[in-house]
Amino acid sequence: MKPSKGDIYRRFIKRPMDFILAFIAIIVLSPVFLVVAILVRTKLGSPVIFKQKRPGLNERIFTMYKFRTMTDERDENGELLPDSIRLTKFGKFLRSTSLDELPELFNIFKGDMSIVGPRPQLVRDMVFMNSKQRKRHSVLPGLTGWAQVNGRNGITWGKKLELDLAYVNNISFLNDWKIIFMTVSKVFIRDGISAEGMDTAEDFGDYLLREKKITMDEYSTAMEKSRKISIS
What we know:
The chain has about 230 residues and is mainly α. The protein has one domain (about 5-230). Helix content is about 50%, strand content about 10%. The protein has helices at about 5-30, 30-45, 85, 90-95, 105-110, 125, 155-170, 175-190, 205-210, 215-230, and strands at about 50-55, 60-65, 115, 140-145. It has a two-stranded antiparallel sheet. Strands 3-4 form a two-stranded parallel sheet. Helix 1 packs across helix 5.
């Protein structure tokens, strides 16, 4: 069977294109990296780079890099305060401009991520997905994606995962560049940064629990599973 144009792009062109674009972007944006790093160090302290484990291609866990946007403020018991408290005004600016995402270019350069693909969600989000939804992990996660240019964190989890699967089933050179150009536009207008009424995106499990789609026992079991995956 003769491979389609989409298959040829996905198998032979997409990864070399990612590598070249990431390499060029890292060089061109190096002054921006330096300025942001200095500001993060000054305003938020060390470490400048925030590292977090995320599920990638075929659910292989990798370490994703971002610029730090939160403080390490803790309560009297040593527990981290809620995200909404630790997320500073400067951190909100980094997120709204997507400057916090710049270090992910190194993930793309390494081959952990792609320029375009489903966004790498948290491990604790993955464990709540059903088998159909987890097919989003059959491709490299992206710096941007179809869900990001169609609402980002301003749409429901159901719609977000639906858009991710739509992308996975329709990968092409033209679609990827369409998403790249749409992303640039969205960044400038700072659209869909957070869900309505929330400073940060709601975890999938919390959403399912709030909507009473799962029980507390199911929630606790899945969260324990995510902890085991994260430390393995």
